[in-house]
Design a protein that fits this description.
single chain; mainly alpha; 0% strand
């Protein structure tokens, strides 16, 4: 979403200052921004709901373990296992409640790699289409000094790629 907002706003300002007049952008440019925004907001919403679901599963388990530990009538081995489990669950809960961008530094590889460290097809598709269409947009904005009309097939391909990305984020039952 950020890249398209930046490309469209900077391209628009470039053309306005170059030509000295305000103009109406092509509708396909708005579709590009809409696809990018919808993809971003949908993925964030789905990810947030997954985290909230997991939090609601973990919190009662933590409370249960704490109740067992407070009771104190158990063997030292069981108490140690419960303390270990409690620590793991508390760490997971903390990481779920901490925004993702604060838990680890961002890397360029994050553009195409999933949380397990594997190259992700849906992320790779999004990156390829964004670079391709963004490059074409930038080239024509600079060379022809106008916004291009992005063909509907390219918009469709970008939409399909975005749908794949969103589909990946939908929780499995």
């Amino acid at each position: 979403m950020t890249i398209w907002t930046w490309l469209i706003v900077s391209g628009y300002l470039y053309l306005v200052f170059l030509k000295g007049e305000i103009f109406e952008p092509e509708a396909s440019i708005l579709w590009l921004m809409g696809i990018a925004s919808t993809t971003f907001l949908s993925a964030k919403s789905i990810s947030k709901s997954k985290a909230e679901k997991r939090i609601s599963e973990i919190e009662p388990v933590i409370d249960n373990i704490q109740d067992q530990l407070d009771n104190g009538k158990m063997s030292p081995v069981k108490k140690e296992r419960l303390n270990q489990k409690l620590g793991l669950l508390q760490n997971e809960l903390k990481s779920l409640k901490t925004p993702a961008d604060r838990t680890k530094p961002w890397r360029w590889a994050d553009l195409i790699v999933d949380v397990q460290g594997n190259v992700s097809l849906h992320k790779l598709q999004m990156l390829i289409w964004t670079i391709l269409i963004g490059g074409i947009f930038t080239w024509f904005c600079y060379k022809d000094q106008q916004f291009i009309s992005v063909p509907t097939t390219l918009l469709g391909l970008m939409g399909i790629s975005s749908g794949t990305y969103i589909g990946y984020h939908i929780p499995k039952k």
